[in-house]
Amino acid sequence: MLVFFTLEENEREEFLMGLIRRNWVVRFWPVMAVCIYSTLFLFGCKKEQASAPPQPPVVTVMEVAIGDVPVTFEFVAQTQSSHLVNINARVNGFLDRRIYTEGDIVKQGQVLFSMDPKPFQAQLAQAMASLAMKKASLETARSNLIRTKPLAEQNALSQKDLDDANGQFESAAAAVEESKAQVETAQLNLSYTTITSPVAGITSAALQTDGTYISAQNSLLTTVAVLSPIWVNFSLSENEMQKELNQVEKGLLKRPKGDRYTVEIILVDGSIFPYTGAITFADPSFNSQTGTFLIRVSVNNPKGVLRPNQFVRVRLKGAIRPNAVLVPQAAVQQGPKGHFVWLVDKNGKTDLQPVVVGEWHGNDWFIFEGLSAGDRVVVEGMLSLRPDIPVTVKPYSAGQNVETAASGNEQKANPPKSGK
Length: 420
Prior knowledge:
This protein has seven helices and 22 strands. By secondary structure, it is of the alpha+beta class. It has four domains: 2-51, no CATH class; 58-69 and 323-413, conserved putative lor/sdh protein from methanococcus maripaludis s2 fold (Beta Barrel), CATH 2.40.420; 71-81 and 227-320, Efflux pump adaptor protein, beta barrel domain (Elongation Factor Tu (Ef-tu), domain 3, Beta Barrel); 87-225, CATH 2.40.50.100. The strands form five sheets. Strands 2, 11, 12, 13, 14, 15, 19 and 20 form an eight-stranded antiparallel β-sheet that branches. It has a four-stranded antiparallel β-sheet with strand order 3-10-8-5, with no helix packed on it. Helix 4 (118-153) packs antiparallel against helix 5.
């Protein structure tokens, strides 16, 4: 009798009439009565359920607001010493010993190396002795000139004798000046045997060991890198620069006055460096090998936390997006024709609206085109939406949970066709 439940209404009537003609109704009347009663009950319930109208979908909606929004830009950067000094020996000789500890931070004027001073002390003594001898000759020439002048005036001596005496005096005076220069050179060479740091900074490894003979070929001893201020370099691609210029021209972005961005340094652990910096140099030349422009930031680093060649991130602050529109990321869907959102009109019905998106801002998305102030955007409950259907609206608050990305992916894969 199960076949009875699968027949249409006219077929069930013919089936019952056949049973009556075959006298089956009398034999199986109790069973048939139960079957007929059950069928009518189920059929009645089905009609009652079918007559109930469907409930409209419940969606969470936010109202679009327009305002100026501060924005930041982040780039990967690398630190560089603002003043890297090569420490070279200025004279040839044997390296006596290294004074500093490799890798330490040294002060300006601190002794780093000492060379054997004995040969230079001997040269100084020789130069000073030569100077003393030249001074004695000068005094003799001066005395001779003093005696010769009055005799020449009395014609007791010839003019030639006076000229010779005057020439000897001037030669002796020049010889004294030459000896003085030799003494000064010898003193300088002796002072160069004590090698100091011209700047305050961090030292590198010693390139020459104690006892090595230092000449012009191996005169580089170490380097000292200044740590404060320190430079932080990052690169801006050609596409990024052109994109920023286009947004400025369209009024989508407003730079700080004079392009004076405040620059934060983000360390490798995500913490913020306590000192902010400023852009001090922008390379006007385009690097064709990397396709970027070099930007340099100068920042104080008094405690030496940042070291040269360290990778960090820079965050540029000070720009704003005027009259910006922000919507939660979960509200923006993507289809074959681009991004879109669902709107709820004043009659409580849905509408599919294409939009032009910008960058992410936290958990929100900048909308450059497609939305206006007062538009009601669906944030949750968009999976069952179709154009021009009534919905039940709930207000959205920024702190509540939004639908997962997996739910949105189904909408992205097969977006409904708009009724427009």
